[in-house]
């Protein structure tokens, strides 16, 4: 359980790399005005991994902001489940809360279940949630191939570009580059 008090910021990144199965539950309670939460997740599941993220984020006071961005690549017979809920209490006016979960499927046998949810009991808020499950864009691959990029490299570049927004949320330059290198290695190993 994370408790975020007045004017505090919580930055949290969850990762799952090839060979790692995880079942993580994150409870975040925003109890102080001016608090901010940045929650990100990145997962690369190429074989038979089982990954589940359960997020419960409660906005209990006014004037707070939360951003959630989870992105993943799922292949083989891997199974991923994202179960996220944002609850905005009646007194939490002027809340801003955003939740996104985006996934790329690389095989017919991979499974992604995504359940973004909002429970809003206040009336002066900006909140949104969304989820996508899709495949690599063939038009983008064709464009890159027409520019001389081999098909395999075009697929890798597409996947790296897809995951890049999560990597970009890491503030420390050295940590960001270490994560970028680990992600690239995992994607190239798919």
Report on this model:
This protein is of the alpha/beta class. The protein contains 3 helices and 10 strands, in the order ββββββββββααα. Strands 1-3-5-7-9 form a 5-stranded parallel beta sheet, with no helix packed on it. Helix 2 packs antiparallel against helix 3. The longest helix is centred in the C-terminal third of the chain and has 17 residues, at 151-167. It is elongated. 30% of the residues are buried. The model has no long low-confidence stretch (mean pLDDT 96).
Shape, principal axes of CA atoms: elongated
Strand content: over 45%
Major beta-sheet overview: 5 strands, parallel
User: How would you write the strand order of the largest sheet?
Assistant: 1-3-5-7-9
- Count of extended strands: 10
């Amino acid at each position: 359980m994370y408790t975020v008090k007045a004017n505090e910021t919580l930055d949290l990144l969850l990762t799952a790399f090839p060979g790692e199965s995880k079942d993580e539950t994150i409870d975040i309670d925003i109890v102080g005005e001016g608090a901010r939460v940045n929650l990100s997740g990145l997962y690369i599941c190429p074989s038979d991994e089982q990954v589940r993220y359960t997020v419960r984020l409660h906005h209990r006071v006014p004037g707070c902001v939360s951003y959630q961005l989870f992105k993943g690549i799922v292949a083989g017979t891997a199974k991923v489940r994202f179960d996220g809920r944002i609850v905005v209490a009646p007194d939490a006016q002027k809340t801003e809360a955003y939740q996104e979960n985006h996934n790329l499927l690389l095989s017919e046998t991979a499974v992604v279940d995504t359940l973004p949810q909002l429970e809003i009991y206040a009336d002066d808020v900006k909140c949104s949630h969304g989820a996508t499950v899709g495949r690599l864009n063939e038009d983008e691959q064709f464009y890159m191939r027409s520019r001389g990029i081999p098909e395999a490299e075009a697929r890798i570049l597409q996947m790296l570009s897809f995951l890049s927004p999560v990597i970009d949320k890491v503030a420390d330059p050295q940590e960001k580059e270490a994560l970028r290198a680990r992600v690239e290695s995992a994607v190239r190993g798919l």
